Predict the structure.
Amino acid sequence: MISSPKAPNAFQYVWRSPWVRAAVFLLLFYLAYRLLGQIQTVVVVFAVAYLIAYLANPMLNWLERGRVKRGLGVFFVLLVFIGILALAAALVVTVSAQLITLLQSLPDQIGRLNDLLDRLFGWLGTHGVPGTDNVRTRLTEAVQTYVQNLGRNIVPLLQNLLSSTGTIFSSIVSIGGVLGQVVLILLLSIYLMLDYSRVNAALLKAFPRPWQPRVLEFTGLVGTSVGGYVRGQLVIAAFIGVFVWLGLTLIGVPSAAAIGFLAGAFNIVPYLGPVIGATPALLLALPFGWVKMLLVVVIFVAANQIEGNFLSPYILSKTTNLHPVAVLLAILVGASLFGFAGALLAVPAVALGKLVLDKYYFPSRVYTEGP
């Protein structure tokens, strides 16, 4: 005899309602949101540790192909990372002191700039050039506003960083402060680097099995666009910082390390570093005459041209493949919407969107045959 199908139980009967399912999923999203708000520090620590492991994984794979055990490779990467942290800490202290001196000396340079502009526009006025007073006023106001914003935003932060009683140093000696988080990030990153493939497999199991091939495919696109972009842009930013530092040192501009640090740090957002670093460099070169100011311009133009014509196309072409106009528009839109963080994330986000369009939209029937 054929048994009759079983009647649905109470849970199955209730779960059939789309309203019940929608309410349950909304409740789960709300609870997850509240939970993330309570453990956001833990989430950030894990995210930073995973990012370190993700960035180091290509080097570890390369070492493994050279018959170096992964544990020894992790130890080598850890030594390199600690060395970079130590060098960065020493550089930050030195550069911070130089930046404070630089920003505090800029008002004096503004006065010299005003005298120079007075002579220049006075000469133009005597030769019949109209509208010189208005142009001079706008130039002076723009430079003064730029310098005031730099001083207002950066000087207090740097002074607090160098102060032994500042919040950064006081939090280091506290339990669970910055030092504790750094140690925890290093420990987590070591475990993640050792078992990188197993951790990824465990994260993949959090998704339903039918979704997993698509998740792998999408994470591959993210790795191509975002991961490759981040690695490449860090290399480019380091080159710009060192190039500007050495160039300004050779021509004798004060605070060359500080300006190089600014140019390199802000060049993480493409094309922004030379723009940020050129203004204080020109003001500091002003007392030395036009020749030195012209050499400063040559250094920053050379840095920009090397980045735009050689480094970026060679390093980033395989990851973003975006036209410079698209890059600039992405930066402007990102900065308008979310400030500096938006400008920083705009290019990899647009690169990811381009890859998604190429992979899914352009081959689809919606694109080839129309909606």
Remarks:
- Residues 164-176 have pLDDT under 50 and may be disordered.
